[in-house]
Amino acid sequence: MISPFVAAALQMNSGAEKSANLAQAEAMIAEAASQGARLVVLPELFPFLGKVSQLRENAESMDGKVLRRMRELAIEHQLVLCAGSMAFPAEGDPLKVVNRSIIFGPHGQTLATYDKIHCFDINLPEVHVVESDYVRPGSHLSVASTPLGHIGQAICYDLRFPEIFRRLTVDGMQICVLPSAFTAKTGQAHWEVLVRARAIENQIYIVAANQCGVYADSIPCFGNSLIVDPWGKILARGDCQTPGVVSAEIDLAYQRKIRTELPALTHRQMI
């Protein structure tokens, strides 16, 4: 049986300067580890958060500096580390990237990878983004067997699509890691209610690490990184503008209790 442990969502304000972003991530991982965290989650596109049209020229490689450093930090601090997400060249397409999240284990092993399935294509008055022009969507879900339990992966806009969270839960997910760069406009309206809804519907913990600050010169992120329990209770929250470590205890025995006392997952009827 897995004992309760501390999880941390790292709220960053990444920008277009990759070396500064990596330095910020390293410092925050070390801070989270010093606070006792065993599961650490970075936000979406943490090494480079600029214009989507510049993702390809700033893409990482699977054996590049950023992932090597993330692997080293997982080993150094004995973490299950979700390296947020980052852009990688899309195989066979010289113009596009995949938006990939990678989970490392405490021995530096790659436990899972996941390519974001849902591209963020919106045309609101304050926010215009067509991610699909530059990002190729993924096609496979991922639940990783880790020393801390079964961890599913989703990224930012995926939050609006409950069917993938239900599929991950059917596949054994106990905890969902959710690297995000959720915007202030949509976040004010929907971020908290969606994170809590996905947690309640599936009786899971969600560790949602969001970006804060402004990227691409004009798009503000919402911050408010969250850790939510299977009852929908917010265990920890970041503020709207300040980077920081957001941490809380994960207790899978409590999750089992919730699922036993309110066995909604066994009552599903598909008509």
CATH architecture: 4-Layer Sandwich
Instruction: Note the total helix count.
Output: 5
Taken together, the total number of domains comes to 1
Report the C-alpha radius of gyration, rounded. Answer: 17 Å
Distance N to C terminus = 36 Å
CATH topology: Nitrilase/N-carbamoyl-D-aminoacid amidohydrolase
Please mark out the parts with pLDDT under 50 across 5 or more consecutive residues, or reply none: none
The helix/strand series, from N terminus to C terminus, equals: EHEHEEEEEEEEHEHEEEEEEH
CATH superfamily: Carbon-nitrogen hydrolase
CATH class: Alpha Beta
Give the class from helix and strand content and strand pairing: alpha+beta
Instruction: Report the average pLDDT across residues.
Output: 96
Strand composition percent: 25-35%
The shape is globular
Percent of residues in helices: 25-40%
Main beta sheet strand tally, sense and closure: 7 strands, mixed
Give the total of beta strands.
17
Condensed summary:
The chain is α+β, with helices and mostly antiparallel strands. It is built from 5 helices and 17 strands. It has a single domain, classed as 4-Layer Sandwich (Nitrilase/N-carbamoyl-D-aminoacid amidohydrolase).
